[in-house]
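Input.
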Amino acid sequence: MYGLINYTNIMHAQWTQASGPAGGNVLSFAVNGSNLFAGTSDGTVYLSTNNGTSWTSVSTGLSSITNVYSLMFNGTNLFAGVAGGVFLSTNNGTSWTKVSTGLTSGVVNSLAVIGTTLFAGTNVGVFLSTDNGANWTKASTGLPYPLIKALTVVPNGAGGSNLFAGTYSGGVFLSTDNGTNWNAVNNGLTYKNVSAIVSNGTMLFAGIDGGIFISTNNGTTWTAGATTTYSISSLALIPNGVGGSNLIAGTPGTLGIFLSTNNGTSWTSVNTGLTSGYVNAIAVSGTNLFAGTNFGVFISSNNGAKWSSVKPSLMNTTNYALASDSSGRLFAGDYTGSGVFLSTNTGTSWTAVNTGLTNINGFTHTAIKSLMSLGKNIFAGTNGGVFMSSDNGSSWNAANTGIATALVSTFAAIGTNIFAGTNGGMFRSTNNGTSWSPINTGLTYTVVNSLAVNGANLFAATGVGVFLSTNNGTNWSAVNTGLTATYANTLTAVPNGVGSSNVFAGTNSGGVFLTTNNGTSWTAANAGIENAQVNAIFAAPNGSGGTNLFAGIFNGGVFLSTNNGTSWTSVATGLPSSYVLSFSAIGTNLFTGTYGGGVWKRSFSEMITSVKGTLNDLPVYFSLDQNYPNPFNPVTTINYQIAANSHVTLSVYDALGRDVATMVNETKDAGSYTVQFNGSALSSGIYFYTLRAGAYSATKKLLLMK
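Output.
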């Protein structure tokens, strides 16, 4: 655990976004005429007036928030339910005002309206407002399950309306008196985690962790639809052209979108062109269908038969991998499923280059964990082994024989030997990736995070320290003397000017360590980042015969050392994503890949004396970060921030709402905290983790993929 890092700028130099690759975790939509609004996980609302061709941020006043879970129009008023309450815009998002008086939950998952009454579904129940959101009162009598995921309004046939609430772990509840009283309507509903509810007037559809359930009598009884094995995250109805409606369902996993033309009796997968299976929201605008995913917005004009990306301004990819070649081409790999992107103009624009990156483990496009440029070839390490391109990414071929089931995290090369570090140990290819053989003798921990080469010496970073091979991986020995933080994330070798190299190791909780004798002994090289989690280290010539080192810090941004790791200073000005995963360089620019923030670049010359960092300031907001990595197997990291002394609980729940792990249950001082969750005892699937600190509560999803 370590304090939140505050940065003080003493120059005007800063990081700028490298225009992509395009992506974005889109959680919600609202449509008003020709205006389409998209709410994202970084607390930003975007507006498109041209069916998604271009987007503009309309977020003035939405400061210091995350997760725009819901958007809703009531007349000309636009409401946003966020991880921070409810906000109102009366000018199409140009500016926002917080309208949360009386709203005791800061997390608003859903919004609905009946006449002049607004309803907010939160983590502590339903609230209502009769004055356009200025004041809220709780309306949860008879509603024992407080986490409200969905709200929908259905005319009751007698001039009034029924209000339905989908809860987490409690099923569906109905209010016939504008939220004054609630009653459970769950008969036949075998799964109780309800994420979406829609109605076509005569039928009610509930999207839950067990698929689609249908009610023809206002929820009195339910029957299972055809998709009883899938989790449903979103539902929408679209006109079918003959006076009825088709039903569209989005899933939160890798299955994408399904279409039913017979009221849920049967379903067809409609995912052509959809390079993301994680569908959070669906919207209908005219004849167009929009899908909000973890990788941006997609549009279909033919009922989902074909999709195309419309996400040029939503650039929140997760980039573990960056690589550049001798011609100045920059490749970026997105781990969350969008594949490989290529830029030929130092990040100004990007093109997806995924032909041949086949669907190996259920992903529409393979998740990219590592990239390496070697001669004329580019190697991509994926969740399904190794792929190779010999034409700058225009096409890829599997180079997987012997390694096809592995998650490949890192590459290295010594002569004609290519090495791959995976979640199942080390592999070596002597024929340019045509086939691979395991090389694990002496390697007592087989999850390999990083590799580095020093002459004929090959180093491997693992969860129990660093291993060394002096014979091309045939044998390994642990080299950890002095390495007091033994979980090693990253390695780099830097020429020391006397014919050999210094090797630096970035660790999970102890900053950076240095060996000058091929691992015989290590010393801390940590001043300024003593307790940091270091995900990436990059070395660049300083122009005078020496080397500048850059460290990518989890929840800390980028740090620079100009003295061989003796001391470090922050160079993170302008870098909004503090979770730095990878580095590369072209010419005078350093590029960094981030978790959820895309690719950013900055001139080397700007950073040498730009910024100093301190570890003294405390957070001013309560917040819960998305776990990292996600998906994970079996360990993931969760960060959270506490603004004031509070009793804190942090628990993990399964899809049925059962508490499977309580990681924190104690009083905490204000500060930033990090915990690790080990899911080795659990089965693959979607889980939820909830942070409660005083009146603050937040819930996020995590995906365990074994």
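The radius of gyration is 26 Å.
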